[in-house]
C-alpha cells in the first residue's frame, strides 16, 4: 500500500453514484480516490490499470462485485466492499451524498483506521 490509501469507487455507468463519491472526496487528504463504471457506456470505464492502482474497491451493488471478480480473476484483486446503494439517485443528490459519506467513511475506517 502507498503512503495514502487509494480508493476506487465503481458503479454501473460512472454517471451518478461513483462520480458523486469521487466529487465529494476528491480533496480528502486521508486517501486518493477515483471512480469508474462497468458499462462500455460509462463516462470512465473500469480498467485493469484502475484495479492494480487501488488498495480497496468500493462498489454499490453485490452484482458489481461479482462482475469485477469474474472479469478480472486473472489478476490480484484488492478488497472489494459493497456499499449497498441503489441506483435511484441523481448526481450530487443530497441523500446520495449523505449515504456515500457515511458508508465510505465506515468502510475506510474498518479497512485502514481512517
What keywords describe this structure?
Rossmann fold, 114 residues, 4-stranded parallel sheet, UCP029416_PTP, Ptyr_pPase_sf, alpha/beta, 18% strand, 4 helices, Ptyr_pPase, Protein-tyrosine-phosphatase
| Rounded mean pLDDT score | 96
- What's the story with the biggest beta sheet? 4 strands, parallel
According to CATH, the fold-level topology is Rossmann fold
Number of DSSP E strands: 4
* Full CATH superfamily name: Response regulator
**Beta-strand residue fraction:** 15-25%
Supply the CATH architecture: 3-Layer(aba) Sandwich
* Largest sheet strand order: 2-1-3-4
Q: Count helical runs.
A: 4
Please state the overall shape, judged from the principal axes of the Cα atoms: globular
Q: Topology as H/E string?
A: EHEHEHEH
Secondary structural class = alpha/beta
Q: What does this entry look like structurally?
A:
The chain is 39% helix and 18% strand. It is of the alpha/beta class and 114 residues long. The chain has a single domain (6-112), classed as Rossmann fold, CATH 3.40.50.2300. Strands 2-1-3-4 form a 4-stranded parallel β-sheet. Helix 1 packs across helix 4. The protein is globular, with a radius of gyration of 13 Å. This is Protein-tyrosine-phosphatase. Residues 5-102 form the Phosphotyrosine protein phosphatase I domain.
Amino acid at each position: 500500500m502507498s503512503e495514502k490509501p487509494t480508493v476506487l469507487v465503481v458503479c454501473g455507468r460512472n454517471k451518478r453514484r461513483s462520480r458523486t463519491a469521487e466529487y465529494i472526496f476528491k480533496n480528502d487528504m486521508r486517501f486518493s480516490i477515483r471512480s469508474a463504471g462497468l458499462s462500455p457506456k460509462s463516462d470512465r470505464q473500469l480498467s485493469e490499470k484502475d484495479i492494480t492502482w487501488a488498495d480497496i474497491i468500493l462498489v454499490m451493488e453485490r452484482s458489481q462485485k461479482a462482475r469485477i471478480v469474474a472479469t478480472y480473476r486473472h489478476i490480484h484483486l484488492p478488497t472489494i466492499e459493497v456499499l449497498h446503494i441503489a441506483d435511484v439517485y441523481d448526481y450530487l443528490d443530497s441523500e446520495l451524498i449523505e449515504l456515500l459519506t457515511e458508508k465510505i467513511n465506515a468502510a475506510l475506517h474498518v479497512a485502514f483506521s481512517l
